[in-house]
C-alpha cells in the first residue's frame, strides 16, 4: 500500500515559508508516498448554522481530503504567540461532525516555522493541544520547530539539511503510524 498523506498549511500567503516546507516534504518522499498540499483559502468562517449535512463545498473538500489521507502533516506559522485564525478555523470545521470527524484517530504530525529565533514553538504547542481536543493521533516525537526559516529556504525548498532530516524523520514516524490499524480516540 502506497501511503497517502495530506499537508495542511496554516498560512494562505502565496510565498508562505510553511507551505514551501510542505512542498519540500512532498518532493523528498515523492518516490514512496502520494502527498497533496491542501490550501485553506476556500474554507469559510466557522458557523454552526452552516455546519449541516451535506457539508458546504469548501468544508466538504477539507473533510474529504482528511478522510482520504492515511496521515496528515500540519504546518503552522505563529501569529501573536498562537496559531493563525485560518488554521484554527479549519480545525474547528475538521473536528465535526461531533464524534464522527475524519480527524478523530487520524495520525497527525505537526511542525512550525518562523523567521524568529523561537520558530513558532508557542503556536505549535497550541496546535498540538487543539489536535488533542479533537482526538487526533498525534505523533509525539521531538517536535520539529524551524527557526530563522527565511535563511533556510532556497528556490522555494528547505535547503537546511539538519532541519530537513529532522522533519523527514518525523514524517517517517507518521508513515509508520499511518500503517497501524485505527484505534479509538481516548
Ligand atoms: C507574525 N509573525 C510572528 N512570528 C513569530 O515567530 N511569532 C509571532 O508571534 C508572530 N506574530 C505575527 C503576527 C502576524 C499577524 C503576522 C502577519 C506575522 C511573523 C511570521 O512568523 C512570518 O510572517 C511568517 O513568514 C509567516 O509564516 P508563512 O506565511 O511564511 O508561512
UniProtKB/TrEMBL annotation:
Signal peptide: none annotated. Pfam families: FMN_red. Coiled coil: none annotated. Residues 3-149 form the NADPH-dependent FMN reductase-like domain. InterPro entries: Flavoprotein-like_sf, FMN_Rdtase-like_dom, NAD(P)H-dep_reductase. PANTHER family: CHROMATE REDUCTASE (PTHR30543), NAD(P)H-DEPENDENT FMN REDUCTASE LOT6 (PTHR30543:SF21). This is NAD(P)H-dependent FMN reductase. It comes from Filomicrobium insigne.
